[in-house]
Design brief:
Layout (H helix, E strand, L loop, with lengths): L2 H23 L17 H35 L14 H6 L7 H5 L4
Helix pairs in contact: 1-2
């Protein structure tokens, strides 16, 4: 994948992430959707669990968005394909599968999320 293809894929992913994050973080329109944790499982508890799940998903998407923005910056400064941590080349296969990879597999496996 050349840098023009990577840039296009990253721009597309950034647009999609922004849309997903906007949807996940939108304020509920129903003013009656107050969330409460009680002793009984009910609609309020189900809604609270759903919101907690959305928060976790939004956190993951936000972390991915950070990597997408960083990968775009690396294209601009000519370091795309080099690990941010150790400077090693990121394998082409990894970049094709995840164009937003800013770490090699070894460094990514040590990353604390």
């Amino acid at each position: 994948m050349d840098t023009a293809e990577a840039r296009a894929a990253l721009q597309d992913r950034l647009t999609n992430l922004d849309g997903e994050l906007a949807e996940l973080t939108a304020v509920p329109l129903d003013p009656m959707s107050a969330v409460s944790f009680g002793k009984r499982v009910g609609d309020g508890t189900t809604e609270a669990v759903d919101r907690l799940t959305k928060v976790g998903t939004a956190d993951q998407l936000s972390a991915m968005r950070t990597d997408v923005v960083r990968a775009l910056a690396k294209i601009e400064d000519g370091t795309y394909g080099l690990c941010d941590q150790c400077g090693a080349l990121i394998p082409e296969e990894r970049l094709e599968a995840r164009p937003w990879s800013v770490l090699c597999v070894r460094c990514a496996s040590r990353r604390v999320v």
